[in-house]
Amino acid sequence: RTTQLIPRVLWSKQHTVQEINIGSTMRQIFYTTKSTAIHLGLFASVADHLESTHLNSVTGLVGFELENMIIGLSYEKLLDDLAAYKGFGSFELSVSYIGSFEDSGDFCPTF
């Protein structure tokens, strides 16, 4: 088996609100076929709005990779004041396509 650790950072900003998601996914590849893997991940979201910065949520992820597709299930648990109103987190089902491309060395796309 081969294990890969894939760190991820996503920063977004809309008007005066900023959010950064930081986490990592572990990808366990099976020897039986190189195109089959299990993904496990954990992420934290830090938000900066209304003149305060705080830990907004934590998210866990489980995914199954087969050929060029990943089917995943994640659960996000809110940790801020909104959690008091909602009382629970949310589930998300995802389907991702893993494409391949040849790097021609050109930075700009051509049309």
Structure description:
There is one protein chain. The chain is mostly beta strands and 111 residues long. The protein has a 6-stranded antiparallel β-sheet with strand order 1-2-3-4-5-6. The protein starts with a strand and ends in a 14-residue tail after the last strand. The protein has one helix spanning 81-86; strands at residues 2-14, 17-29, 36-49, 52-66, 69-78, 90-97. The model has no long low-confidence stretch (mean pLDDT 84). 5% of the residues are buried.
What's the helix and strand layout?
Elements: E1 2-14, E2 17-29, E3 36-49, E4 52-66, E5 69-78, H1 81-86, E6 90-97
Features:
single chain; 111 residues; mainly beta; 6-stranded antiparallel sheet; globular
> Element order, helices and strands?
EEEEEHE
Low-confidence stretches: none
Tally of strands:
6
* Sheet with most strands: 6 strands, antiparallel
What is the mean predicted local confidence, pLDDT?
84
Helix content: under 10%
Instruction: Tell me what portion of residues adopts beta-strand conformation.
Output: over 45%
What structural class do the secondary elements suggest? mainly beta
Q: Tell me the overall shape.
A: globular
| End-to-end Cα distance | 41 Å
Strand order of the largest sheet: 1-2-3-4-5-6
Rg, Å, rounded: 18 Å
Helix tally equals 1
